[in-house]
Amino acid sequence: MVASFNNLKTLAIVAFALALCVQVTLGSITCENLNKDSCAFAISSTGKRCVLEKSLRRSGEQVYTCRTSEIEADNKLKNRIETDNCIQSCGVNRNTLGISSDSLLECHFTKKLCSPECYKHCPNIVDLYFNLAAGEGVYLPRLCEEQGGNGRRGMAEIRSSGIVAPAPEMGVKPANFMISPAMSPF
To answer: What is the pTM (predicted TM-score) of this model?
Structure first.
């Protein structure tokens, strides 16, 4: 009887400790509280993306800080720090400063982003680059389809094949050329 009470007591302590760990792990993410090694590709509990910024102190020392950006992630992706597996599979770097679409012009990066390991299993990174590509007038799924050929040529073709508003002297209203925004595959 005493042994089973001790086992029950031990089990209760372990359950409490486990619940406490889960609560700490699943706590709210605030970008400003993240360190350099977990900031890039993280999403705060409010759904805003975190960005890593670098500044110089008067002494010349480089200081890295994590800030909350104005860029919102998909609602399903709130409160998330990207996994090391996705960082590696998608070819991104935890030391990335800011958020930019420039890497979409690099064949090696786009090939990794479009790989099944990244595209099918890392919705946070795919959502980010889907929206960055859309901001450049590029539809990411189509860019990924083009990866079979020359990725750089594919990006150039996709960018040049977008709808371009006519010049004002043509008398056509640009509103006729508006399309609804594309949705991320996630």
So the answer is: 0.66
